[in-house]
Design brief:
seven-stranded mixed sheet, 21 strands, 2 domains, mainly beta, six-stranded antiparallel sheet, 11% helix, OB fold (Dihydrolipoamide Acetyltransferase, E2P), 295 residues, D-amino Acid Aminotransferase, Chain A, domain 1
């Protein structure tokens, strides 16, 4: 068997977002709310990468002893998550990523594995998904922290379960799909909006007109910026608590905070006003995507 030249890091395959459950021949999997995580084992040891192709040689030590089953010159694709009451909780994963201590038991990660790119030096990306999943089923043992993703044939039934359990969404994949880096229409994702409360740390104005609020959340002992939201800001002005906000001279956010656009000013405030926010998903950088203020 000819050994393939294993490229690392790789461009990961990503689904196209759709609004409704697709009809046709698909395999359905839960969309786990975590961080994309590729693992490659070679003679040089273990290497890991994110979706953005950032490479690590160590990141989540608690996974190390669960990876002994992976053969040399093999690469798998999956998602690392932190579970809270049995469901993935992205804010806890962000806390873990921001924390320099690996000794916080409630922030330990689990690895949900859903694909194989290389196996024992052979390139599996040109084999159909159904064969790649079969390989995982045959070769991946049950372990404490690494879990093979469950695959379902009935999408409507899975979607009902996702709604009941409050999970993020699902991915529908064509059984014949080959692994191709980039966004690819043979994988489709359907997502459910999420809701969470964040604190206002700044307000963006153009003249006297409120443009957006800068939101943050407490992470370990820090107040971290999660995004500026303009959709729904009109409702904030009806909220009398806005009048009680104390202005401050500097940003309350640790690390990188919001920047004003051209013609905008930011008024910093003490983060005391909670706002309920609906959003589609977290970006890998820990920012809200497609967010709107609902209260």
């Amino acid at each position: 068997i000819a050994m393939a030249e294993v490229q690392f890091p790789v461009k990961v395959m990503e689904p196209v977002r759709v609004e409704a459950l697709p009809v046709g021949d698909y395999l359905y999997q839960v969309k786990w709310d975590g961080m994309r995580w590729i693992t490659y084992k070679s003679s040089r040891g273990m290497q890991f990468q994110t979706k953005a192709q950032k490479v690590f040689t160590t990141r989540f030590p608690e996974l190390d002893h669960s990876m002994n089953w992976l053969p040399m010159e093999s690469m798998i694709d999956g998602e690392v998550v932190v579970l809270k009451e049995g469901a993935p909780h992205f804010p806890s994963l962000l806390r873990r990523i921001h924390s320099h201590s690996h000794k916080i038991p409630e922030l330990e990660v689990e690895y949900i594995i859903f694909d194989v790119l290389f196996w024992e030096g052979q390139d599996w990306r040109n084999k159909p998904l159904s064969e790649r999943l079969e390989l995982l089923e045959q070769r991946m043992p049950a372990s404490e922290r690494c879990h093979r993703i469950e695959t379902f044939s009935n999408g409507a039934k899975l979607w009902h379960g996702i709604e009941q359990l409050g999970l993020e969404g699902l991915v529908a994949k064509e059984p014949k799909s080959l692994y191709r880096g980039g966004i690819n229409a043979s994988w489709l994702k359907i997502k459910k909006a999420q809701e969470q409360t964040f604190l206002v740390g700044g307000m963006k104005f153009k003249g006297n007109s409120l443009q957006a609020v800068c939101l943050g959340m407490a992470m370990n002992t820090q107040f971290v910026y999660v995004g500026s939201v303009s959709n729904g800001v009109a409702s904030i002005l009806k909220n009398e608590s806005v009048l009680t906000l104390s202005e401050r001279s500097s940003s309350p956010f640790e690390g990188i905070g919001p920047k004003p656009s051209r013609g905008e000013t930011i008024r910093w405030v003490e983060p005391t006003l909670p706002l309920k926010t609906r959003f589609l998903e977290w970006t890998e950088g820990g920012k809200l995507r497609h967010a709107q203020i609902i209260v």
